[in-house]
Design brief:
The radius of gyration is 19 Å and the shape is globular. The chain has ten helices and 16 strands. Helices cover 39% and strands 22% of the residues. The longest helix has 20 residues, at 211-230. The structure holds ligand DP6. Residues 9-159 form the Diphosphomevalonate decarboxylase-like N-terminal domain.
């Protein structure tokens, strides 16, 4: 029996955003989303069953996890135990290579790695879609990090039972024509602590008059995005990603009270991206629940794009990512 398993997973950046849940307990998203998994900043997680232990222990980068992070991981282990029909507690040891303050959410790579490792350690046999559904219950965006390259996460059906809804919401790979894309990540100095994405999503859905129109237009964005990926049209992919992200941020700005993740430095970087486009470089921006800017461009243009955004946001780090692999088990 395995009893101990180690998995690695990478973060992903959504080009069509997930924002808003139709069911918070099951992590069912209001809309479909589509992302690129990165080839940088892996998370490696080992789950070891501890039959003698009375409780789970969670270690994050060599230190005991506390608070909300610990609570979410233990709740996730409970779910895996319930499904596997097992009771043993576990030791979870996670190494996350996202530089501190990079402002890249680690929940996607974190829960994708945890889902793969915990399923193996507890003897839960799941196919890729099953692992994606499971990872979703830790953090919605983790459902997409099960897969490499481009993945689409289906919102699923909401007209049936909770079981039917749960089964219908998972991610799967998206086939693309050759694109040779890069995402240049401009780390913009974060201001005061931001609203958590969970709280912000809920507030946006509950109070923003722009939310439903965005959700509706996001459907069209996804169809356009699939077509653009299918023909390997990077400028179209970028244009659609940028409008979808700006639309998502507009829904938040219209929430009551407003949720604003974009800072003055974010807008300065956005201006530099526009300047690149005026110079004929196809470069397009997307932003998540923070001030950092991810710029989609051709691999061949990535160094020039990195230089430009570095000059626009002095002091912040810049990272270049390509499409990365899906989550996988490591040999013990
Ligand atoms: C803005 O997956 O972190 O990055 O499901 O509540 O854990 P929870 O939220 P999370 O939200 C990600 C939101 C986003 C857009 C995206 O990745 O699609």
């Amino acid at each position: 029996l395995a009893h101990s398993a180690t998995a690695v997973a990478h973060p992903n950046i959504a080009l069509i955003k997930y924002w808003g849940k139709s069911d918070e307990r099951l992590f069912l998203p209001r809309t479909d989303s589509l992302s690129m998994t990165l080839d940088i900043f892996p998370t490696t997680t080992r789950v070891r069953l501890a039959p003698e232990a009375g409780q789970d222990t969670v270690t994050f980068n060599g230190r005991p996890a506390t608070g909300e992070a610990e609570r979410r991981i233990i709740a996730f282990l409970e779910l895996v135990r319930e499904r596997a029909g097992r009771a043993e507690r576990a030791d979870v040891d996670t190494e996350n290579t996202v530089p501190t303050g990079a402002g890249l959410a680690s929940s996607a790579s974190g829960f994708a790695a945890l889902a793969v490792a915990a399923a193996a350690a507890y003897g839960l046999e799941l196919d890729a879609a099953g692992l994606s559904r499971l990872a979703r219950r830790g953090s919605g965006s983790a459902s997409r990090s099960i897969f490499g390259d481009f993945a689409v996460w289906h919102a699923g059906r909401t007209d049936g039972t909770p079981e039917e809804a749960d089964l219908s919401s998972y991610a799967e790979p998206v086939r693309t024509a050759p694109l040779d894309p890069a995402l240049v990540i401009a780390v913009v100095n974060a201001g005061p602590k931001e609203v958590s994405s969970r709280t912000a999503m809920r507030r946006t859905m509950d109070t923003s008059p722009l939310f439903e129109p965005w959700a509706l237009s996001s459907k069209g964005d996804l169809a356009d995005m699939r077509a653009a990926l299918g023909r390997g049209d990077l400028p179209a992919v970028g244009e659609i990603a940028e409008r979808n992200a700006l639309g998502m941020h507009a829904t938040m700005l219209a929430a009551r009270p407003a949720v604003r993740y974009l800072s003055p430095a974010t807008l300065t970087v956005l201006d530099s991206v526009l300047a690149l486009r005026r110079d004929g470089v196809p470069a397009y921006a997307t932003m998540d629940a923070g001030p950092n800017v991810k710029v989609l461009c051709r691999r061949a243009d990535a160094d020039r794009v990195a230089e430009t955004v570095r000059a626009a946001a002095p002091g912040g780090a810049v990272h270049i990512a390509g499409p990365g692999p899906g989550a996988r088990l490591l040999a013990e």
